[in-house]
Amino acid sequence: MKIAVLSFAHLHAMSYLHALSQRDDIELVATDPDHADRAEGESGGPEIAAMFGVRYLESYDDVWEWGPDAVIICSENSLHRPLAEQAAARGAHVLSEKPLATSVEDAQAMVDACEQAGVTLMIAHPVRFSTAFLELKDAYDAGVVGTVKSVLGTNNGRLPMNVRKWFVDKELAGGGSITDHTVHVADLLDSLLGGVEATSVYAVSNKILHSDEVEVETGGLVSIEYANDVIATVDCSWSKPDSYPTWGGLTLQLVGSRGIADMDAFNARVDGHSETDKNGLWFPYGVDADQAMINEFLDAVASGKKPGPDGRSGLRTVSIVQAAYESVRTGQTVTL
Amino acid sequence: MSPLVPPASEPLRVGMVGAGGIAGAHLPAWLGLGAQVSVYALDGAPELTAYFGGGTVVGSFEELISQVDVVDVVTPTPFHREYIEAAAAAGKHVVSEKPLGRTAADARAAIDACAAAGVQLYPGHVVRFFSEYETMHREVEKGTIGEIAVQRFTRGGTRPDRAWYHDDAQSGGIILDQMIHDLDFARWNAGEVSTAFARISKNGEGLDAIVNAQVVLTHVSGAISYVGGVWARPGTTFRTTFEIAGTGGILRHDSTQYKPVVIDGGTPDESGTGLLPAMRGVSPFTTELGEFARAFTVGPAPRVSAEDGYAATVIAEAAITSLETGQPVSVELAGVAA
């Protein structure tokens, strides 16, 4: 099986390179042709590939010539579509970094291209593979909390621009915290609720945090209603301070007829306090969700079975994000 | 407007109207503050005073009025306005359990009646007096976390067992009855509210329903707030959480996580499973009623005013309207002193 990692714009590429390099049943290459255009001091290119002992190719054309069975797209969000279309045209399966795209139009085009080419399209939502979410989903599916009618989700993090400036570039990222963080919670709900469509979205946002550093929104609350009458609110704000001891976190609360379930996806940790750093210490442990996700994708490529989350679930979560921006713009609830 | 009715003298003579849920929190607090308490209620007054070993039961509202300086209205919501107005007409200062009125118009009328009579009126927004909340607000005011950007408040526990709470016509539902605490607090922290948006889920019917409402507020300052409230199945632990994110950091609390003592007796912990959270250390009701009592005698104005109580009902009412329209509703305060 020949796997190619396309672009290191999203630093999850490093985690995926690590996970892929643990597998001795694949051939692996990577390319990051636009690394020289990145902001000053931002790493990339052959230097990163070398860290993981991965063969580096100079261009996307070199990758297509090499003939991958599957690609993992870690480019800037707005460039997911052209890379996915090129891969599909060459019969290569696709794992795309989240969000699937920066517009419903682009997401739909990616889904269509992959379906027409008969290749798999999967979205990189590793939290689906976390121990916490798998335990929650088992309990939910077993009816432990009964019928769930409402959900509160939070995905708060530090401002991500300190590692990659494009995260706060409206054109390349698609927006700010609403784009970056709504989709993770929406994807978990997509999994729990079995892919039911959202019917209406109301959202508010602001730029009080980091107001002099970025143009995009940094705070956001997104309220969603689904076709099965489940309601959900997502706090997607980049509201963890720069000095917070970890990148952020993700929580989910399900209010059911038989109980209330709380999940903290990154609660498995050893913490403490460092006199040296003058800050809290935070050391996560447990199953490597990125590795589990990569394994699911590779299994799907090898066996032909359908992986999750698939392109259509990615399309549903992108639809929620687009509706959230329309709601912010109009100040009204948007019906889907 | 400065009060026309003179300050009360000590010991304060307090007349409670009602002997239901919150009366069981107010009576021991008043007694602890050294007040002389009379209780008038349609039923439950003898049991209440016997349980707490203090307070005198009286047979009519007129009798109550004749022997007190302050009336404490702890009736179900629909009766708040008429008892506030009756107390004002008799020249008595008033404490009213929240919400100040069943509607914002009722709250406005009650405030106007008290102003006209020259008596003081304070609403029981007791969350402002809970140690964890007043500590958080103190730090917000000090600027510890800079300018507020995003706030989240959640509150939930066993649903009320009395039927009137579940009749929206009487209680206003969970938003006006329970979530008004956090709506008030969101405004106290981040300032006036511009719009309120709300959704609600009801899982089951009537008294057996699990209710969860979710409210999204925008503030004039640009801050945004989430307020969530749950009435859950019997036996559910009362739990409150908040996270306040500002330009200089975050403040947070979770009543189920930050416990000074945990005892595992091998059986379910029954504390904090009713309509009130488990309260440790300083009683917020003693702090609240003590602050009101000082205001009634010679002390400074308390941290919560009748106008705050009115604003909270306006915000709650906007959220309730949003449930019907499916759209955000703008919050317009009428007659609030600057």
Name some characteristics of this structure:
heterodimer, A: 336 residues, alpha/beta, Rossmann fold, Dihydrodipicolinate Reductase, domain 2, 2 domains, 7-stranded mixed beta sheet, 6-stranded parallel beta sheet, 15 strands, B: 338 residues, 13 strands, Dehydrogenase (chain B), Gfo/Idh/MocA_Oxidoreductases (chain B), NAD(P)-bd_dom_sf (chain B)
Brief overview:
Chain A has 336 residues and is of the alpha/beta class. Chain A is built from ten helices and 15 strands. In chain A, the strands form three sheets. Chain A has a seven-stranded mixed β-sheet. Chain A has a six-stranded parallel β-sheet with strand order 3-2-1-4-5-6, with helices on both faces. A two-stranded antiparallel sheet of chain A has the order 13-14.
The SS-based structural class of chain B is alpha/beta
Q: Tell me the overall shape of chain B.
A: globular
Strand order, sheet with most strands of chain B: 12-11-7-10-9-8-13
Order of helices and strands of chain A: EHEHEHEHEHEHEHHEEEEEEEHHE
How much helical structure, as a percent, in the residues of chain B? 25-40%
CATH architecture verdict of the largest domain in chain A:
2-Layer Sandwich
In CATH, the homologous superfamily of the largest domain in chain B goes by the name: Dihydrodipicolinate Reductase, domain 2
- CATH class term of the largest domain in chain A: Alpha Beta
CATH architecture of the largest domain in chain B: 2-Layer Sandwich
Pair with the biggest interface: A-B, 40 and 39 residues
- CA-CA gap between termini of chain B: 12 Å
Q: Count the helices of chain B. How many?
A: 10
InterPro entries (chain B): Gfo/Idh/MocA-like_OxRdtase_N (IPR000683), Gfo/Idh/MocA_Oxidoreductases (IPR051450), GFO_IDH_MocA-like_dom (IPR055170), NAD(P)-bd_dom_sf (IPR036291)
Protein name (chain B): Dehydrogenase
GO molecular function, one term (chain B): nucleotide binding
Organism (chain B): Microlunatus endophyticus
